[in-house]
Amino acid sequence: MGYTKDQLLARLQELKIYFTCYDHPVVLTVEEQAKHVGHLGGALSKNLLLKDKKHRLYVISALAGTKVDMKILSQRLGLGKGGLRMAPEENLLEVLQVPLRCVTPFALINESASAVSLLLDQGFKSKQICYFHPLTNDVTIALSSSNLDKFLISIGKQPAYVDLEAAPAVGKDNPPDLAHLVPSGVPNSSEQPVENASHTNVPHHQNNVPKETEVKAIMTISKVQSKGAETSSKVDKPTTNTSVDKFVNDVFDIISPLLSEELKKLDIKEELSSILDGLRGRADPDLKSIAMTLKNASYTNGFHAGFKTMLHRGLNG
Amino acid sequence: MEVGAQREATQPMLVVQEETPPVVGVRAKDTEHETEAAAVELVVTQSEVLAPEGRMDYDKLVDLFGCQRIDAALVHRIARLTSRPPHRFLRRGVFFAHRDFNSVLDLHEAGEKFYLFTGMEPSSEALHLSHLIPFMFTKYLQDAFKVPVVIQLCDDASFLRNNNLTVAECKRLARENAKDIIACGFDIQRTFIFTNISYTRGAFYENILEVAKRVTCEDSIGIIGGSQEDNIGIVGFPPVEAAPSLPSSFPHLFPRNDQPRCLIPCAIYRDPFFRMIRDVAPKIGFQKPSLIESKILPALQGEESSKMSASNPNSAIYVTDSPKQIKTMVNKYAFSGGQSSVELHRKLGANLDVDVPIKYLEFFLEDDDEFEHIKKEYKDGRMLTGEVKQRLIAAISEMVSRHQRARAQVTEEMVDAFMELRPLPNMFG
């Protein structure tokens, strides 16, 4: 399964990557981490796991003091204005395989995180020592950005440093400057639902093309779609997916962008993604309940139909 | 177990199942018994496990029984293995004790299989909230670990225990209760529900015999909290309730060469009972079932036994209650830890240890941040009992109406399908 902290540290030693290791009680925030290592002179990092509408994941690793504007970042990636939001906890546990509140660039050592894109704050380059969690939040390791690069290259990732505070205008004459950092190919965590009568996976994604598409962005997206179609036929398994959780997530993925658009028209001041997450949290139990009811009822009908068929035909068919 | 309760001097203080027992255990006189059973007699009365103020002392109970506590590391491990946030009952410590749950997690991590077993004794048509707790948690475990569930409806025990019920009535009650269980959201592709009266034959009955041969009459009477005066049917019942923890009881589900381990979510007072099957299973050649155990939802009037016997016995909230009924029950009967006047309350704050609405919110309010906030405000005296009760009423009403909606959709055909002896091909998927 996922790498352990010890396995990671052993690997760093193998690669002759110099780092210092600090143990401390479990910390869940940068402020708490600062209490334990902040006085040592290095630069603390804040790490976010973000997700776009096509379920692609991004780790944004920034200096604690850098201001990260998700709207601007979303535009620079070519995802439109509201294309990015905080990834749900499941992605942390499933894809990055780290505990909650422990996002770290080092999680990319895991095979499951191979499709995750990493954006590093340019600011790290000018710091001698930077602090990150090495897959658990009861330890902090300190290393230079060049050593971090060494690690990333060793796992096949090209380090991408970005001026996270820059806010270039994105429009007709200025294509999104970070579009090349959008992951291509199908992310690991997506499943391929087949049996569900009300909707299927592929058409839903194709409907989700953001409005502000530039030439470069269009090319990136169509590349993703064709690659997506390609790889989906490769990963297509014969088993049908009857997951209620997946169904409910898909329903939200359809409604969220539509709701977002309407809310934007009304000029809502609050962060749309947090409104949507709040709605999702509240509607989740009811949606899951009715979805399970539908599933059980459908099965029941099929079961009895099969039974009657056998009665009529006899076991020889 | 209800029979035993009537003999005891202390009134049953828990609103839970009708069979609320004085907590009894198997007498550990044989050296064969597991070391976890204490070397002394384990027959205890509820008064021994009540703390001075009359609350249930769970620490004492866990120590007495010898089971282990679920700590934050274990909850974290569960979250990591299932790739989802842990259930509210784990976060709040409602499911707080276990036996060998770590072994189950080890197996799961290694790619081995396990199945869940839980059940109930149908004794009345309407269930109350505390009935739902093990089912809600079992459903979560089913979804989180993607494993099958077998659910046992003990209509036979119900018949043997209740003088006023006929066999036909018990069978009918079992089916009605099954609908409520289904409404909790079990996945028909991974769930098998059965009633003892219909299912007792074949492999299941053979396992009942295997278990029965290895339990003495005296021990069985101890387990059910009964006496020599009880009918032999109920004395002979424990093996029936134990047999589902042996996977060979379900030949249509588990092939002979692939016998998965069993995990049993249950309330903590069932621990002495399941200790019997944990003792017997290895002797028949099976792995011991693991247990994951919950606290008990207190009666609305609170855990103090004196309160319970004095006032209205119907102090539970039923899944058939309307929002109006829920409001009345909570406002009228829920024991408050608040002060006697508003001024005093604002000054001293509430006593969270005895406050029942807070206890109920611990069980039923999903949002952790909101719960912490309410506790703080209430304890500091800024929030009043009325407000806390109001929040509780809203939370319970929402849950109950969701349940009623789901229950209304359960047809007789659906119950038949859940109870049919059919293969479950994707039960571990």
UniProtKB/TrEMBL annotation, chain A:
Extract the CDD domains matched here. PrdX_deacylase
Cite the YbaK/aminoacyl-tRNA synthetase-associated domain residue spans from the record: 24-151
- Family matches, as InterPro entries: ProX/PRXD1, YbaK/aa-tRNA-synt-asso_dom_sf, YbaK/aa-tRNA-synth-assoc-dom
What GO molecular function annotations does the UniProt record carry, in alphabetical order?
A: aminoacyl-tRNA deacylase activity
For this protein, the record's Gene3D superfamilies field holds: YbaK/aminoacyl-tRNA synthetase-associated domain (3.90.960.10)
Q: Could you tell me which Pfam families the record lists for this protein?
A: tRNA_edit (PF04073)
Q: Where is this region: Disordered?
A: 187-209
Give the protein family. Answer: Belongs to the PRORSD1 family.
This chain belongs to the protein called YbaK/aminoacyl-tRNA synthetase-associated domain-containing protein
Query: In which organism is this protein found?
Result: Miscanthus lutarioriparius
TrEMBL record, chain B:
GO terms under cellular component: cytoplasm
Q: For this protein, what is any one GO molecular function term?
A: ATP binding
Q: Name one GO biological process term.
A: tryptophanyl-tRNA aminoacylation
Entry keywords, A to Z: Aminoacyl-tRNA synthetase, ATP-binding, Ligase, Nucleotide-binding, Protein biosynthesis
Query: What is the E.C. number?
Result: 6.1.1.2
Q: Does the keyword Cytoplasm apply?
A: no
Q: Which InterPro entries match?
A: aa-tRNA-synth_Ic, Rossmann-like_a/b/a_fold, Trp-tRNA-ligase
PANTHER family recorded for this chain? TRYPTOPHAN--TRNA LIGASE, CYTOPLASMIC, TRYPTOPHANYL-TRNA SYNTHETASE
State the family it belongs to: Belongs to the class-I aminoacyl-tRNA synthetase family.
Instruction: Please identify the protein, giving its name as recorded.
Output: Tryptophan--tRNA ligase, cytoplasmic
Q: Which organism is it from?
A: Miscanthus lutarioriparius
Question: What lineage, starting at the top, does this entry show?
Answer: Eukaryota, Viridiplantae, Streptophyta, Embryophyta, Tracheophyta
